[in-house]
Amino acid sequence: EVLALHLARRAHITVADARIVDSDDVPVAVIRRFDRVQDAVSGEQRRLLFVSAATMMSLPPGDSGEHSYTEIADIIRQRSADATPDLAELWRRIAFSILINNVDDHLHNHGFLHVEGDLWRLSPAFDVNPFPDRARELKTWISEDAGPTASIAALMASARYFGLSHTRASEIVGDVERSVSTWSTVATSLGFTRDETDAFADAFEHDERAVAQRVMV
Question: Which of 209, 156, 179, 187 is nearest to 2 (CA)?
Fold first, then answer.
């Protein structure tokens, strides 16, 4: 997860701060909470109200139905304090999930932070993980028509729904692909061994990377 968050930040995605620390020779992921802020006057921490995308969509507990990112986009249009950048950010995160094979992108792994009144903003990305041994199928579909397949072509076809021109969408895919291409270098900098890096290769080296390279401007 720390590797994924570092790559996501390189791809200009807003993420939770994360690092690896050594605890008695055991590497431990330390991820800073983003739902806490320090009061400028008192110095005390206060909690920001956070809800998952599932909650924002008023889904019942345990809902296991098929849902899509276009549904989250609809919620952003209705409830975001600044919908245009939130829509673009969400689309960028889908591209990132496809290119690192983050296939645990269910609705509880997307969230919103309260701004004021009935207004919210997309929260920093969290719980983003590469899965080298899982089929390339998203938990949250790109759209109802696209189905579960983690496809750059399907993502590009959805760009206008997220308020993006083809040119801008291509630029974003380029940003994300260039970030993901550095995955092994970043893994090494975080202390991954050669065997550990090799074990994750299939999450990053696959045909959708080549598709992304072809749509880059």
Answer: 187
Q: 97-140 pLDDT, tens per residue?
A: 999 999 999 999 999 999 999 999 999 999 999 999 999 999 99
Q: Cα angle at 154 between 80 and 112, to 5 degrees? A: 20
- Burial category of 123 from C-beta neighbours within 10 Å (exposed 0-12, middle 13-18, buried 19 and up): buried
User: In 3D, which of 53, 50, 58 has the Cα closest to residue 73?
Assistant: 53
Local structure of 55: helix, strand or coil? helix
Question: Alpha-carbon distance 217 to 170, whole Å?
Answer: 6
CA proximity to 129, closest of 67, 211, 200, 177: 200
Q: Please report which residue ranges of the chain form alpha helices under DSSP H.
A: 2-10, 53-56, 69-79, 83-100, 152-157, 166-180, 183-189, 194-199, 201-204, 207-215
- Please check the confidence at residue 41 and state whether its pLDDT lies above 80: no
SS3 state at 159: helix
How many CB atoms lie under 10 A from the CB of residue 57?
Answer: 16
**Looking at the DSSP assignment, which residues form a beta bridge with residue 23?**
26
Reference 74, options 172, 197, 158, 193; nearest CA is 158
In the chain, the percentage of residues whose pLDDT exceeds 90 is: 79
Token pair for residue 33? 């909470």
